[in-house]
Amino acid sequence: MKKIKVAPFLPTEVEVNEVSETRAEVIAYPFEDGYAVTLAHPLRRLVLGSSIGYAPISLKIEGAAHEFDSVRGMHEDVAVFIINLKSIRFKIKDDIDRVTVSYSFQGPREVIAADLNNDQIEVINGSVVLATLNEDAELNFTVETAKGIGYVPSENLRDDVDSEAIALDAFFTPVRKANYKIENVLVEDNPNYEKIIFDIETDGQITPVEAFTNALETMSKQLSVFNGVLDIDLDSAPTRKASSGNELKAYLVSVDALGLSARSFNSLDRAGIKYLGELVLMSANELKNIKNLGKKSLDEIQECLTEHGFGKDSELDENVRVNLVKKLEQLKA
What we know:
It is a single chain. The chain is α+β, with helices and mostly antiparallel strands. The chain has 3 domains: 13-51 and 175-223, Gyrase A, domain 2; 53-171, RNA Polymerase Alpha Subunit, Chain A, domain 2 (Beta Complex); 232-331, DNA polymerase, domain 1. The chain contains 9 helices and 14 strands. It has helices at residues 35-50, 78-86, 208-223, 243-248, 262-270, 276-281, 284-288, 295-307, 318-331; strands at residues 13-18, 23-31, 52-61, 90-92, 98-106, 109-112, 121-123, 129-133, 138-149, 151-152, 166-167, 170-171, 175-187, 190-202. The chain has a 4-stranded antiparallel β-sheet with strand order 1-2-14-13. A 4-stranded antiparallel β-sheet has the order 5-9-3-11, with helices on one face. A hairpin with a 4-residue loop joins β1 and β2. The relative contact order is 0.14.
């Protein structure tokens, strides 16, 4: 006979099995029947889709005007050079979003990925061959590397890189594999409890455990939108609303949903500004002092604020201000 429960069983065990530097298993148990797959599937998707990596986003080669050109003395065409470059996995050493590095090589020699290591950039897979130079060849090029998630096609980057550079498709995702399996585990006399075994492999830009913890943080932040439900007044009208949630909804629009130009968005992103409400709370002087924010971008942001009903003449209710500050602190914690 089954026991009567008032709450689902809470799993208590978690293990990390580091198979190698780039592969690990994360194991958690015991879950009640059905709970394991409910958690495992979205976590797998977040490991694959929200892990931060690095990729070259633009290339400028001296003597080459476009990707179908060639360089005197270099065995590879520019198109092949680009393919080789995109197969190299970079890592920015400092905590910055972008870095631009120039290189110069004289032939005869074989240029490999490890030759691109310097104080700003670390190459993970150093044995990749980038180019083969004849004895009279001189190869000068500049690579811009950025931090990001997912995949961004070159056409989306053309307005955001040097006009003289070749924009590159950017494959940021550092996760090569993310799978899970579910096994039954015995709890007391019940064999129907479940164990999740995640198998995660990365390219070395980040560790598998870092990829998994990033996914957990992303899931937590995504679910925080429902925190307003905790403020529901159960004694209110038949249509019950989370008052603070609705009151603040207009302020919690993500910056990347505002339709700003890439230059304006990147300036805000580097400053750690993620929500419209953060801009609303800032004074005119604070907006002007955002690092790398030019006049054109400032005008665009102010116009965007006006379009959303937060122009220069708008006033923010003090209670709304207090609740907004509190909510933003929760979201960015």
